Amino acid sequence: MAKDKYKAVWVSHSSISDFLQCPKAYYLKNVYKDPNTGNKIKIITPALSLGLVVHNVIESLSQLPVDKRFQTPLLQKFNREWQKVSGKRGGFTDSDQEKEYKDRGERMIQKVVKNPGPVGGLAVKIQMDLPHFWLSEEDEIILCGKVDWLEYLPDTDSVNIIDFKTSRNKEEESSLQLPIYLLLVENCQKRAVEKASYWYLETEDEPSEVKLPESEEAKSEVLRIAQKIKLARQLEMYDCPEGEKGCRVCQDLQRVLNGEGELVGQDEYGADVYVLPSNRQQEEENREGVVL
């Protein structure tokens, strides 16, 4: 008998990262719903808005044939997407801050226009709105997530996983992002994964290849953490590692619950989006711990 995916625990790179940083933050981002609206909550920051817009512009190209990808100027697409995050909706405190981030985004898009590399070549598009598969039917755990780009390699009928980075920081070797992307690509489409790359759009003109993780090791590690997440949900135990005072990851979300945030809209998944009246947004830029 087929398992009911609606009763399963769904995990992704972002939710696993939340849990590893702080179980309380995981709860507030991925489980808690505002009793007044029935929606999840989210805090928007300039760094998140920048990543979201650049990602949306580039990702949209994979849906088009190669000869039509650049018919509409990318900066025109960028400006159209930017309007969705302009002002408080994007977490910007003033016009100067917004201009700084928008200028950064424009430079990234211009870099892709001048040096399209794999973006100008054949791509594989996974035919699922949200790629997902049963990480463990026995444990009733589903792994889900979107991969930025799958470059098609015709000589070997395989793919290159490409992740676009808008952060100035390099991805840590211990990151589970590539292991999770590898598992998703292997299980959600038929071609073998030949290689993987990061493209740091602010500092590099082309993607940089990185070592692929071993598939079985990746599955074992991701499943181990996913099982911990499922147990925490069953026991309803989401303790912050720094105790009741909270850590930097969960404190801001708690401030939203305390009524300190300003509601500025909803995201594409229906979550209530808030900004906080403080300088924490600048701290987020300095950390740039969350990128797309």
Q: How far is the first residue's CA from the last residue's CA?
A: 37 Å
The mean pLDDT is: 93
Biggest β-sheet strands, sense, barrel: 4 strands, mixed
Which structural category do the helix and sheet elements fall into? alpha/beta
Which percent range fits the helix content? 25-40%
Number of helices: 9
The general outline is globular
- CATH hierarchy, class: Alpha Beta
As a percent range, the share of strand residues is 15-25%
What does this structure look like?
The chain has 292 residues and is α/β, with parallel strands linked by helices. It has one domain (1-292): Lambda Exonuclease, Chain A (Alpha-Beta Complex), CATH 3.90.320. The chain has nine helices and ten strands. The protein has a four-stranded mixed β-sheet with strand order 5-6-7-8. A hairpin with a 4-residue loop joins strand 5 and strand 6 (158-165). Helix 2 packs across helix 8, helix 4 runs antiparallel to helix 5 (95-114) and helix 6 (177-188) crosses helix 7 (215-235). The longest helix is centred in the last third of the chain and has 21 residues, at 215-235. The chain starts with 8 loop residues before the first strand and ends in a 5-residue tail after the last helix.
